[in-house]
Amino acid sequence: MSEEMRNxxxxxxxxxxIGAALAxxxxxxxxxxxxxxxxxxxxxETQRHAPDNIHPLAVDIATIDGQTNILEFIPExxxxxxxQILVQNAAVGVPSRLQDIQHDDFEYAFAVNVTAPLMxxxxxxxxxxxxxxxxxxxxxxxxxxxxxxxxTYGSLKWLFKGCMNNL
Length: 167
Hints:
By secondary structure, the chain is of the alpha/beta class.
């Protein structure tokens, strides 16, 4: 009995918007797509477009449990043929000015926008390296051209980009 050969893409923030659209497109190219988000319902809506290829996982990526669930979702026994893609699309921002930001809100945004994607990259390197996989991080123009009220979103996206450039 031969092993099933699977190509995987992993997309955070895949319940709506760009993440959901990317998941739907990749699923139609014979990829198994792990779609990740905080809310199960939007992920299931994304899954309806390709139920055999889109696999929803509702977790909070800001938590260690959420990060572990993601890294353990694709069984080690699967053979990832050709490539694996990790698309880091999830991000949060607290719309406020610096003088109004709350410590807990900033800490949560930091966990989602910086810590979680760095830990996914670190945890994915063995598989990505073995299969010549790629990491795609979705950026934002606000990281280079700040707008009023984007202190958490823009600054943390900019910080993460700097981290990734030093890998």
